[in-house]
Backbone:
């Protein structure tokens, strides 16, 4: 099973209770991965409100994930 | 009427002030310099003034014009008395009308200081002992000397130098939002000597702002932020031109403000404003430095439309709605977070003005101050964005369902058959209960999960503290096909009593 390194920001970090973690997953795409994580951590923001970056570049939600990928979920923030 | 005159006749202050009335002037201030009865410990019975009139008038007019322009005042006038004056008579009178009092006070102060310093006037004092003597016109003491600010420590940088300092002095920067980010940005830009700074903020200082907004003091509470910030920054660096605009940045004023800016800095705290700044910057081809903070984190993005760079909408094509994720008020924030992000913004602005290497472009910088980490993500231009989505999406932001808000007392809403849903957090509900009974309580997060069972034929009114979250929630439900959902405009805060 591929192992991914995950990083969370803002609301997601709060809801996950951590800023990063490693997971073993069968999720093939960021979209599947987010659905899996939303169930585990109780993420409430719909994926349409988020951005995902894979290996330090913004990515589509349906790209294929590979072992060792670093995945970052970024909610928009507006505080000032 | 000249803006600077000499007169032999006694000065009538009220008559001089009349022609300075302006409809746009919210502030008028005047200064009267009077003959006092002592000088250097010697009793004085009267004074006599002489001037080199032709030169004095030309120089005086220049002083008034400079001060009005520097501080954004609307009208000003200075009249100096000549001849013999008794104790208590007005020797010099200055009046300034400006949009707000900060500009009026600053311009008035500058005119009197400069007149004393630069206009050739001599004064003969008549002492009680019968003697008299010409004294040096006015001694420009340390407090009255021309304002100076020493940039030598930054000029010493090889990349800055004298040329860089001139660039900074002629740069025009528009700062939108004078909150936590804005305070940091403004302080650093004023310190660096950015010649023209315009501050746009419609808000007033609240005690809850002070922990992260050190341009304000506790006694500024209730004062317009743009005005208080401008006054504080002019004290800090009086050589600059600082303009305060106590209005919200909107479609109608954005174009004009951007046209006068070399760089715009977004320090706002809501998505609608951020997209507005982004879109206006893209249209005007002006670089925009955007930042946002959340609790212990921040995001920084520099939009370079003049270089064909990516913009906020390239990453967030669907304009994000305010209310879906927390702001500083709802989620909390630690003071150094906006301060650090604001300083990063100031750094990017200085890099752009000075042409320094390492300018951010097509990247999103994520800063996590708990983990002491930062991450640079490539954020390239989205080919589908720009002329297409900027125009369409900004229209969507402006004109999104206009029947979403209703404005009426909650009790009247309940009586009219609305089902009232309080979407605030449980703690907020306990602290300030709704002024009615029978409402449903459903925190926003649960509503977004689908927790509201919408009965057909029934009308729903969503309520929160200020009407921002409820509007987002109503829009969310409308988008899911529930037409009978509205948001209480202004939230609980807008209800009387």
Residues:
């Amino acid at each position: 099973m591929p192992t991914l390194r995950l990083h969370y920001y803002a609301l997601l970090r709060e809801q996950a209770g951590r800023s990063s973690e490693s997971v073993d997953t069968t999720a093939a795409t960021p979209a599947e991965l987010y659905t899996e994580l939303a169930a585990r951590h109780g993420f409430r923001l719909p994926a349409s409100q988020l951005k995902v970056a894979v290996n330090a570049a913004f990515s589509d939600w349906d790209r294929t994930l590979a072992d060792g990928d670093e995945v970052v979920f970024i909610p928009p923030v507006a505080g000032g | 009427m000249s803006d600077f005159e000499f007169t032999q006749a006694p000065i009538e202050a009220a008559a001089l002030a009349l022609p300075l009335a302006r409809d746009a002037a919210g502030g008028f201030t005047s200064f009267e310099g009077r003959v006092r009865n002592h000088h250097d410990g010697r009793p004085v019975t009267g004074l006599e003034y002489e001037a080199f009139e032709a030169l004095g008038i030309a120089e005086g007019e220049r002083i008034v014009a400079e001060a009005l322009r520097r501080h954004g005042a609307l009208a000003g006038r200075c009249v100096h008395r000549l001849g013999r004056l008794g104790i208590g008579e007005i020797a010099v009178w200055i009046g300034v009308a400006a949009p707000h009092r900060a500009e009026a006070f600053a311009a008035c102060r500058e005119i009197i200081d400069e007149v004393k310093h630069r206009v050739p006037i001599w004064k003969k004092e008549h002492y009680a002992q019968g003697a008299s003597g010409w004294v040096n016109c006015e001694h420009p003491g340390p407090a009255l000397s021309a304002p100076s600010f020493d940039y030598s420590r930054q000029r010493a940088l090889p990349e800055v130098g004298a040329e860089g300092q001139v660039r900074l002095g002629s740069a025009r920067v528009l700062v939108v939002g004078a909150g936590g980010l804005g305070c940091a940005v403004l302080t650093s830009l004023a310190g660096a000597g950015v010649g023209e700074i315009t501050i746009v903020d419609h808000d007033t200082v609240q005690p809850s702002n002070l922990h992260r907004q050190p341009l304000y003091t506790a006694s500024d509470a209730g004062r317009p932020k743009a005005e208080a910030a401008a006054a504080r920054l002019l004290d800090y660096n009086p050589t600059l031109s600082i303009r305060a605009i106590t209005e919200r940045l909107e479609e109608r004023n954005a174009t004009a403000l951007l046209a006068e800016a070399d760089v715009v800095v977004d320090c706002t705290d809501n998505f609608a404003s951020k997209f507005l700044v982004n879109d206006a910057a893209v249209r005007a081809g002006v670089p925009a430095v955007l930042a946002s903070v959340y609790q212990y984190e921040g995001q920084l993005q520099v939009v370079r439309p003049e270089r064909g760079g990516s913009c906020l909408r390239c990453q967030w094509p669907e304009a994000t709605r305010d209310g879906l994720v927390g702001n500083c008020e709802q989620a909390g924030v630690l003071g150094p977070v906006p301060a650090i992000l604001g300083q990063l913004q100031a750094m990017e602005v200085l890099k752009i003005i000075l042409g320094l290497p390492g300018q951010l472009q097509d990247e999103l910088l994520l800063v996590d101050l708990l983990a002491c980490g930062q991450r640079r993500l490539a954020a390239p231009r989205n080919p589908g964005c720009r002329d297409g989505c900027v125009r369409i999406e900004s229209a969507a932001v402006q004109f999104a369902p206009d029947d979403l808000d209703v404005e009426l007392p909650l009790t009247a809403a309940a009586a009219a058959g609305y089902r009232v849903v309080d979407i605030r957090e449980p703690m907020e509900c306990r602290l300030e209960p709704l002024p009615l009974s029978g409402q449903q309580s459903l925190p926003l997060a649960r509503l977004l999960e689908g927790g509201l069972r919408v009965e057909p034929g029934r009308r729903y009114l969503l309520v929160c503290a200020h009407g921002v979250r409820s509007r987002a929630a109503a829009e969310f439900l409308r988008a899911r096909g529930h037409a009978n959902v509205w948001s209480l405009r202004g939230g609980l805060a807008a209800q009387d009593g």
